[in-house]
From TrEMBL:
The name this protein goes by in its record: TetR/AcrR family transcriptional regulator
Xref: Pfam families: TetR_C_13, TetR_N
UniProt keyword list: DNA-binding, Transcription, Transcription regulation
Residues within the DNA-binding region(s): 30-49
PANTHER family on file: HTH-TYPE TRANSCRIPTIONAL REGULATOR RUTR, HTH-TYPE TRANSCRIPTIONAL REPRESSOR BDCR
Record PROSITE patterns: HTH_TETR_2
Species whose genome carries this gene: Myceligenerans pegani
All residue ranges annotated as the HTH tetR-type domain in the record: 7-67
Length: 193
């Protein structure tokens, strides 16, 4: 029973952090704000997290898990049909960019707030970006491209751009533009000897 209560308190702290960090920024949100939102105490907070940076790392890891699940599901659902998987990914990205409160990619945002590449926050960001690139490599694997890594890097660049454009531009046009751009990268990679 106690472990369930502790687990649920950790989840409440992470839910509060997710809401506040994404909406207001990592540096702008104090531990006290997270504690207040979660309805707990500092003592309880520090039982679960040694520092605010530990909470930020946990927040980013939870966001990464959600993204990875969605991307893996799209690739699996595509069943080797790269275009089908890209359509799912583009539709999801477009829907996310049109959702109320969309502020772009939480990992790009975190990198902007934590410039030191050796910080634990940036290490989580770097690991997630490596994961994304490997996911794009898995996506294009059925095409037997001459340089799947280069194609994956190009797709990663597009993914970064769509997350920024969704926040700064017209989110209603994001899905179609992302899909067209990804298809163009893949066509170009298929033509490259």
């Amino acid at each position: 029973m106690i472990s369930t209560v502790q687990g649920s308190m950790r989840e409440r702290l992470l839910e509060a952090a997710n809401e506040l960090f994404y909406a207001q920024g990592l540096r702008a949100v104090s531990v006290d704000k997270v504690i207040d939102r979660a309805g707990t105490t500092k003592v309880t907070f520090y039982r679960h997290f040694q520092s605010k940076d530990d909470l930020i790392v946990a927040y980013l890891e939870s966001r990464a898990e959600v993204e990875r699940h969605g991307v893996d599901a799209a690739i699996t659902h595509g069943g080797g049909d790269v275009d089908a998987a890209l359509r799912i990914m583009a539709e999801h990205t477009g829907a996310a960019a049109c959702a109320p409160g969309f502020r772009g990619c939480p990992f790009i945002n975190a990198a902007a707030e934590y410039p030191d590449p050796g910080s634990p926050v940036r290490e989580v960001v770097a690991a997630h970006r490596r994961w994304w690139t490997s996911a794009f490599e898995r996506l294009v694997a059925p095409l037997d491209l001459a340089d799947p890594t280069a194609a994956a890097e190009d797709l990663m660049l597009l993914r970064d751009g769509v997350m920024v454009a969704g926040y700064l531009g017209d989110p209603a046009r994001i899905a179609a533009s992302f899909l067209r751009s990804c298809q163009a990268v893949i066509r170009s990679a298929a033509l490259t000897p």
